[in-house]
Amino acid sequence: MSGRRPLRREDRAAFERIFDDAVRVLRRSGVVPDHVEDADLHALVVEAMDSVNPVADRAYDAYAYLREHAERGRLRRAMAEAAPELDEVYGEGWTRWALREHAGPHPPSEQWLAERVVPAARARWEQELLFQGILPLLIPAFRAPWALADMDFSSARTAPPVSPGAAPGGTPRPQPAGDAEPDPEPDTGPDVTWHGGTNHTGIVRPPDPPTQVTPYGSPPAQTAFPRTVPDPEPQPPPPDPRRMVVELVDQAPPGTRVPLHVQFVRDGPDRTDGVPLRAFAVPPEGARLLVTVYAPGLTVLGDLQQEVTVRPGADSDVLRFGLRTTAPGLRTVTVRAFHRGTFLGEVRAQVSVGTGAPVRDGPPRTAALGTVAFDPGEVTLQVLRGADGSYSFQLIGETCYAPESFRTVGGDPRLISERVYRELRQAAADAGPGGADGTAGTRRLRNLGVELWASAVPEAVRRQFWAEADRVSSVTVLGEHDLVPWELLYPLDGPSEGPGFLAEWLPVVRRTFGQQRVRRLALPEVTFVVPPGSPPEAAREVETVRRLFDAGATGVRVLDDRASVAALVEDGYRGLLHFACHNAFTTERGSVVSMADGPFDPVDLAYATHAGTLRESGPMVFFNACRSAGQIDWFASTLGWAPQFLRAGAGAFVGTLWPVRSDAAQDFARAFYTHFLGHGGSLGEASLHARRALRRGDGDPTWLAYAVYGSPAARAEPPGPAATTRQP
User: Which listed site, 407, 459, 563, 649, has its alpha carbon 20 to 30 Å from 679?
Assistant: First the structure.
């Protein structure tokens, strides 16, 4: 065993269950006030999910080690090799018992060990997680006047396992099979007697761990439960403001070597280079950032990605990337920063290559990074398009894989995507009462997803994904040429198969280059755009969302003309902008919405986009209309509702990739907002919840049609004028 392992997906589910049990009992005992939202507590614990407590980490490391070897049929040998370490975690003599204790004359079989040892190891980890990890984190936050040792969680599903025979206080209540919820416990008031004693809260200290190990029991605890609430954890270091500076020449002749410099520097009153970044806390050991460079049309001299450590109170080292100019023309170089699997931000610089042109230095280029914090389990799939039409795929997570080149064999990917979209549009039209056979439609949709996974994702990247799958909590697709319906991917490679489409398995979100990272979406008001001729369901959709804002929004309004919408965006609108309307889309003209005063298209957002009018407010835009996430080429870039709003500074954007059914669109919006606003879920969680709620098995692909742009961990601030948009 070496080092702490990240939680596997099924263990993350156990973590969530244990946390829910803890909160339920703490609420009943009065430790957690009723006004405190579960979502706030959940965010507190999830931030420390993989390192909530060293004791729990050691127990999980041992459990994961035993489970992995049990799956390979080598548990007995592994236990013999790691006996000293396992004894240290579980108590002296534990491995000797596990290897020797057997009912018959022969040594215990692998199956016997797997059925007895691994469940005991898991139970011990859950016990340590609850009593040594989650509770010491939650209780001090509310300044509970009693000791942790006075808390009794025997009625929770995470009760510590004990020796065979009667459990403390009687036989544990049997749990229902599958995903069924247990019977609710009776509310007996504050003076409940639980196996033998009460205190002023009705909560009794759990028994000390057993000192003897029996064949069906758990390993003895190394130490008793703490008798007092531990001291609060040390406060994190103060924010350490930074600037990111990128330097590249403005002009050079062909065949010239040009350096590209990247540095993260401290902020201060006398600093003029760069642009201030949002303040972030840098741990004592420093934050390790990955910097990548994308330079189509230039010759690369050396690596296109390097790592640098940002340390407290000091400038980072300067990273140097080597480039050489080639043919004349205007070349764009893009620099991006990542922290593990989380995309932080980017800088774009241009160099003009001209025959006989002198070399001319350019000014420092900068871009703000919202924070260098990363979201545990997030992986980014970066998709880049080369000048020769090839594509580069790179999977970036806790392991940063090398880019993989890929060239489509079916022709122009835009034409391929259009053929897929036409079929999906027809599937949406055929679904519903009296429509085509739902089973056949569902099977066809799955086959499209499987073929897309095999055809659009390089084999090497697929292998990398399966190697990381147990640790992935969300997937962000980062790309400028957003042609592939990533939400339709169905991962399947021989024996490796996920539980359905990727977008119903994990939160799948998108990010465009130049999009800022917003972790907190301030929604003090909501504006609906409902032009004449909108679907009949639009009125019900507006009423559904309006009710969720009644508790605190400062304003709710409905607009139907393009002049008012354009002015709203140019003035830096702050809140939720929800479109409930028809959107006409063609590959030649792009998107157009017919408003009361004329057609409204993405060009009407050009001023807001290039002026960045929404960067300070970071609103959320939900474009619930047909093909609202579609885009077309426009000179040197792409033009569409999503890129225009996001480049203007929107914090999140939700739109559709192909025409959808109006009734299904309304249901998706209701499920999304209920989870995002009503339950305090994250952007990624809300999209996943809405997709699952909308999937009906009738062949309608609407639940996969929605493209969600933004940080998967972004959450809505409570409605109110004091809400802020970015997380410091």
Answer: 649
- For the record, the structure tokens of 76 come out as 């007995």
Contacts for 344-348 with beta carbons within 8 Å, 24 or more apart?
Answer: 344/289, 344/369, 344/370, 344/371, 344/372, 344/517, 345/244, 345/369, 345/370, 345/516, 345/517, 346/513, 346/514, 347/244, 347/246, 348/513, 348/514
Q: Which helix (H) or strand (E) holds 474?
A: strand 474-479
Identity of the residue numbered 246: V
CB atoms within 10 A of CB 557: 12
Pick from 439, 441, 414: nearest CA to 426: 441
Cβ burial of 136 (10 Å; 0-12, 13-18, 19+) is buried
Encode pLDDT of 550-602 as tens digits: 645 557 889 999 999 999 999 999 999 999 998 887 767 778 899 999 999 99
The residue behind tokens 């189509």 is 296
Give the model confidence (pLDDT) of 474-531 as tens digits. Answer: 999 988 655 678 898 999 999 898 888 999 989 999 988 778 778 889 888 899 999 9
DSSP 287-353: EEEEEEEE-TTSEEES-SEEEEEE-TTSPPPPEEEEEE--SSEEEEEEEEEEETTEEEEEEEEEEEE
Burial class (CB in 10 A: 0-12, 13-18, 19+), 35: exposed
Sign of the dihedral through C-alpha 437, 438, 440, 445: positive
In the DSSP assignment, the letter for residue 177 is S
Alpha carbon dihedral 637, 642, 644, 648, in 10-degree steps, equals -130
Residue spans of alpha helices (H) in 360-481: 413-430, 438-456, 459-468
Task: Give how far Cα 29 sits from Cα of 32, 169, 198, 392, 508, Å.
Answer: 8, 19, 12, 55, 38
Q: How far apart, in whole angstroms, are the C-alpha atoms of residue 695 and residue 442?
A: 10
What sign has the CA pseudo-torsion 52, 56, 58, 64? negative
Mean pLDDT in the chain?
75
What counts of helices (H) and strands (E) characterise the chain?
18, 30
8 A C-beta contact, residue 375 and residue 342: yes
Residue position matching structure tokens 């929107």: 650
pLDDT in tens, 146-175: 333 344 444 444 333 333 222 223 333 333
587 in Cβ contact with 632 (< 8 Å): yes
